[in-house]
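Researcher: Checking consistency across runs. Here is Phosphoribosylpyrophosphate synthetase again:
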Amino acid sequence: MLAQAEALGRRCAVPVHPVGVRQFPDGESLITAPAHGAHTALLLRSLDDPNAKLVELLLASAALRDGGVRRVILIAPYLAYMRQDMAFHPGEAVSQQVIGGLLAQWFDGVVTVDPHLHRIERLDQAIPGIPALALSAAPALVAALAEELDPATVLVGPDSESRPWVESIAAPLGLHVLVGEKVRHGDRAVTLEIPGISAVRDRPALLVDDVISSGTTLIACADLLRAAGASGIEAVATHALASPADMARMGAAGISRIRATDATTHPAATIPLARVLADAIRAAGWLETP
């Protein structure tokens, strides 16, 4: 994420130093932290592909502290392992608590963007004892969309959980909102419905979600929108995690363009978060030496 780090460094007016990562044939990593003698280090690493990144992240934190850094702040625009917030079946690990507790031990603060917090209200409930900031990507998305969006566009959230988030983007742009609903038929069958979908006839539709991964729900929405006469369908999200095959499936379903923030490194990640992150870092006082 060097490009994202450089953009954030410019916004925060701080120097950027890459962390050295050398991988050995046996799979271990040698981490080399820059020696710069600063009081505070902002460590930027998004945690998509978390199993490969977490150990290196903890080693980097340790190396920075060994080099004299007193305060290490993790900037993880995408924060993994937040979905499993309870044991749904006997024997399951509650990864949100495990990973949140681990990060609390190794960092003095955490910043992320639009984390999946389903049954808790605040990020510090998952990452206890340190400042833990959950930012919204809405300002970045609004700024990007305002430059080119057709004012007739209808914003569509895929499910009821997305409503507050979709409305926070639609309100400053003055756009109409539709939100999908999952309708259960018995114990197993689930269908998707979009109340008021007739509003998209001959109008462009923009699907809005926090994470684009497999794309299954977005494809189901796109099928409904296309059948309802939408003149075009695009999608935007905070986090793009979809594989090339999934991106191709969404394209084949009629989603002509997919954009996301640069919370992850991905072909769709074209909307910068540097300003949102820098404003939060500055407001937290982490650019000041105690």
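Researcher: Does this match what you'd expect to see?
Model: One thing to look at in this run: Residues 50-66 form the longest helix (17 residues).
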